[in-house]
Amino acid sequence: MSVPPESVVPPPSNGAQAPPSDTPSTEERTWAMFAHLSALLGCIVTGHWFGWGCFLGPLIIWLVKKDSMPFVDDQGKEALNFNITIAIIGLALLLLTLMTLGLGVLLAIPVGVVVGVAWLVFTIIAAIRANEGVRYRYPFTLRLIK
User: Fold this and answer.
1) If we measure between CA atoms, which residue out of 124, 118, 119, 127 comes closest to residue 35?
2) Contact 38, 78 (CB under 8 A)
């Protein structure tokens, strides 16, 4: 019994399959990774002011690349929302300390250390996942920018 020629599918030339169309390009993955890691740079640069600039890097990258790269648009918004959330927490801890005339520092310092370590860990995880082409979602994030 012979097989009709229409049903014969040629094997792939080198065993590689074409990536799905929704897979981000290497350039998109790199810029998405930069959107997450730029928060670290912003925090280092503005560290003498309690690291308030952690959201500036993600904001700049998102504004520049959002129209041309959908994956960077998604990950830039995610990094921006997370870092705005962290900045709000930092501001709340500072206000707690000031409103209690310094006694709030007994709570603000331990909470600040935990939040700071979590911020660093989640930012590094997000950068690695974005570089792999995975749409990462930070936990405990206010989604202010949609």
Assistant:
1) 127
2) no
Average pLDDT of the chain? 85
Residue 16 banded pLDDT, cuts 50, 70, 90:
very low
The 10s digit of each residue's pLDDT in 52-74 is 778 888 999 999 999 999 999 99
Q: How confident is the model at residue 3 (pLDDT cuts 50, 70, 90)?
A: low
CB crowding 102-134: b at 16 or more within 10 Å, else e: eebbeebeeebeebeeebeebbeebbebbbebe
Residue 132 CA neighbour count, 13 Å, CB half: 9
Residue bearing tokens 């929302």: 81
DSSP string, 95-128: HHHHHTTTTTHHHHHHHHHHHHHHHHHHHHHHHH
Closest CA to 137 of 48, 77, 49: 77
Report the greatest alpha carbon distance in the chain: 91
CB distance 146 to 81 below 8 Å? no
Whether 33 contacts 125, CB under 8 Å: no
